[in-house]
Specification:
It is a single chain. The chain is an alpha+beta fold. The chain has 23 helices and eleven strands. A hairpin with a 5-residue loop joins strand 8 and strand 9. It is elongated, with a radius of gyration of 30 Å. The protein starts with a helix and ends in a 10-residue tail after the last helix. The C terminus is likely disordered.
């Protein structure tokens, strides 16, 4: 592989006009396609295999036209102090609002509070429920605007009006987070390279790669039902790895220049060595993202595949366009060790080179490996302790900031009707195979009333055929509570008993039940996902490092860093530690998607750092250095650039902490702290300590396996042999 990539790098450097033209043409083509494509709606949301989804599908069949899984909005009214919602003036305002709400083209029905008895006992709070034809993710912006405008009219009439439900569900906007990440990346790259031109290359190539990827997603969004949320993960990961991959190749190019090679030769060797690491690092990220399909949530699968495609583009750009741009840059990209005018003049040749920080740190670790290893493991273990109390759930309006209308509506409904009113459960009774459907409906209602934490059970509402009915259950606890989850399972257990005696199916659905089912589905998929992703990456790293223990150490270190990061998330978002500093207004269960999402994203990035850092150690070892010397050599060449890459990643993810959306805030914090733990504790401390303790055993591989594995030559040994280079001088430890 190294020889092929070496030739590709030289060809791209020499034929830079042709390579640049190809990528610019692809960017233009993707941009034109995106501009001419139909506007992407919000992706349809379905959870195959869950009971809540089965109930929704059944309702579509037995209650045609009701849009059971359509969006709902609860317009909550509160009378001015000293007044009642039943006062003539207030009643007239509400009824006028209901009339206006009914005019929407996507509206199925609107309930009148006074006819539906949706007025609180004290008469101060009432609500009207609006049902739509499509889900909240698919609801048109015009319908949302009409809903907001109608509520504003009622406010101007003197009432307090807030809107809850999923009708106002919006795609979380990242705001200026990308700009913040790019700005920090630019500063870090300038400090790393000491040159604006060298720093600009990774940024330029990353932006081109992300531009092609996101434009392609936009162009295909309508045809493939990708939705507007799909590009968020692709943009975040594509920008991150795009900068990383180009950073590593440019850094290796400067190192080759420092050894006295001509620029075309240096570009070829940079792509042949660092490019090999880029290929395998990219493969680990692609495996982690495509592996999200095992969860069997279509929206998550599409997001993972789209992001994986953007990563593949980033790899190709790093291997071809980066050497092409290096050809354009010429002498403006200086050899490693020389500083440009921006940060100072070049060092004098007669002055001995001072060991860099990476060399000094690695030398310390190989002298004190046991102490460093124990400190790192104990530290991460302590950070992981809160993860033992992890509670998973999906956010509802109660987790929104108090400044939002959804949260204020949630609080008003809790005040007027009880906390469980914000998460009603819909029980669907399919009595088609039963001898006496009416008796089954009545029995089901009676069984549910006998359960704990049940406040209200409405009479069964049968369909026209009389073989299926819906029953609404109001819990006594808030939707995200463990008590409500137990109630859902209790109803399902009672339904199993009813089925045994009557052949009727009892299904529980609604947004609360759907959230519970999604959480359980994600929990069940976590272990298979870990086995798949870590297993495939383990096999891939065996090929890269030609070792058993190094990939095993990489996987175990990753699991340790992820557990520590989950512990930090629990401490902040569930326990409330440092919640004020992080802007967390409401603590509660951790988003159920967080563990599997963190595993997928962080695993790919963690393996990036592992491949880039340890391949330099492997390269030094293969070329004759002792194991301890190879560790120091790897850090001398790779620590600075890995540190820069990690800081850039943390900046990109930390930019999301400022979001007003609790879900986005949690993802940003979790990914940023996970990168910190993995890059600076695992890869920079635990990895060199373990390798120093293992010595030559770290690179052991059974003879039969060594013969069976393909020789991918990540270290570039073929390049060294072909050119007749002498072995480099061993590093003194």
């Amino acid at each position: 592989m190294a020889t092929f990539l070496y030739k590709l790098g030289r060809l791209s450097f020499r034929r830079r006009h042709f390579v640049a033209l190809i990528w610019v043409a692809l960017l233009t083509l993707a941009g034109v396609g995106a501009a001419g494509a139909p506007a992407a709606g919000n992706s349809s949301f379905s959870i195959p295999g869950t009971e809540a989804q089965k109930a929704f599908d059944l309702l579509e069949q037995r209650f045609p036209g009701t849009s059971a899984d359509g969006a709902t909005a609860r317009v909550v009214f509160k009378a001015p102090s000293g007044e009642k919602m039943t006062d003539p003036g207030n009643k007239a305002t509400v009824q006028e609002t209901v009339k206006e709400l009914s005019d929407g083209s996507e509206v199925v029905r609107v309930t009148d509070p006074y006819q539906a008895k949706a007025v609180s006992k004290d008469g101060t709070i009432a609500y009207a429920q609006v049902s739509y034809k499509v889900s909240g993710m698919e609801l048109d912006d015009a319908a949302k605007d009409a809903l907001k405008d109608t509520a504003q009219d009622a406010r101007e009439a003197g009432l307090t009006v807030e809107i809850g439900g999923d009708a106002l569900q919006a795609v979380p906007h990242t705001g200026s987070s990308e700009i913040i990440g790019i700005a920090v990346a630019a500063v870090v790259l300038v400090i790393t390279f000491g040159s604006l031109v060298a720093a600009g290359l990774p940024l330029l190539t990353a932006l081109i790669g992300v531009g092609i990827g996101v434009s392609a997603i936009t162009g295909l969004a309508s045809a493939l039902d990708l939705g507007s949320t799909t590009s968020i993960l692709a943009m975040m990961i594509g920008l991150a790895v795009g900068i990383d991959y180009a950073l590593f190749i440019v850094s290796r190019y400067r190192a080759e220049l420092a050894e006295g090679r001509e620029r075309e030769e240096a570009a070829g060797r940079a792509v042949g060595t660092a490019g090999s690491a880029v290929v395998f690092a990219g493969l680990t990220v692609v495996i982690a993202l495509v592996g999200l399909s095992v969860v069997n949530i279509p929206m998550l699968t599409k997001m993972g595949i789209a992001a994986a495609g953007t990563v593949a583009i980033a790899v190709l750009i790093a291997l071809t366009m980066v050497p092409a741009l290096l050809g354009y840059a010429g002498r403006k990209v200086r050899p490693m060790g020389e500083k440009g005018k921006l940060l100072g003049r070049a060092k004098k040749k007669d002055r001995p080179a001072k060991p860099n920080l990476g060399t000094r740190w690695a030398s310390f670790v190989v002298r004190r490996p046991v102490a460093v290893l124990l400190l790192g493991v104990i530290g991460l273990g302590a950070a992981a302790v809160p993860a033992t109390s992890l509670e998973l759930g999906l956010p509802d309006d109660g987790s929104q900031p108090t400044s939002t209308t959804q949260r204020r509506a949630y609080d008003l409904l809790s005040e007027g009707f009880g906390p469980g009113f914000n998460g009603p459960l819909m029980v669907v009774v399919d009595a088609k195979d039963s001898d006496d459907p009416k008796a089954v409906f009545a029995e089901t209602g009676d069984r549910i009333r006998d359960l704990k934490d049940v406040v209200t059970v409405t009479p069964a509402q049968p369909n026209k055929a009389g073989d299926t009915a819906t029953i609404t259950v109001i819990p006594g606890s808030k939707p995200s509570s463990v008590t409500t989850e137990n109630l859902v399972h209790g109803i399902r257990d009672a339904g199993a008993d009813i089925k045994a005696g009557t052949d009727a199916n009892v299904l529980v659905t609604g947004s609360t039940a759907m959230n519970i089912d999604v959480s359980e589905k994600l929990n069940d998929a976590l272990v298979p996902y870990l086995v798949l992703v870590v297993g495939l990456a383990f096999l891939l790293l065996i090929v890269v490092f030609r070792s058993i223990l190094v990939p095993l150490k990489a996987a175990l270190g990753f699991l340790l860093s992820v557990m520590a990061a989950l512990g930090a998330v629990v401490a902040v978002f569930q326990w409330g530690w440092l919640s004020g500093l992080m802007g967390v207004e409401q603590t509660g269960p951790v988003m159920s998607m967080m563990p599997i999402f963190m595993v997928g994203v962080v695993f790919g990035l963690a393996m990036d750092y592992e491949v880039f850092l340890v391949t330099r150690m492997r390269e030094a070892y293969v070329h004759g250095e002792k194991p301890a010397q190879a560790v120091v050599t790897g850090f001398r060449h790779g620590a600075r650039v890995v540190t820069a890459a990690a800081v850039i990643m943390m900046a990109v993810f930390a930019g999301f902490i400022g979001s007003s959306e609790s879900m986005v805030k949690m993802i940003g914090f979790g990914l940023a702290i996970a990168v910190f733990f993995d890059a600076f504790v695992v890869r920079m401390a635990i990895v060199p300590a373990v390798l120093a303790l293992l010595g030559r055993k770290a690179w052991w591989l059974p003879t039969w396996l060594d013969r069976a594995l393909p020789n991918v030559d990540v270290e570039g040994e073929g390049l060294r042999t072909a050119s007749g280079d002498d072995d480099r001088e061993p590093v003194r430890v």
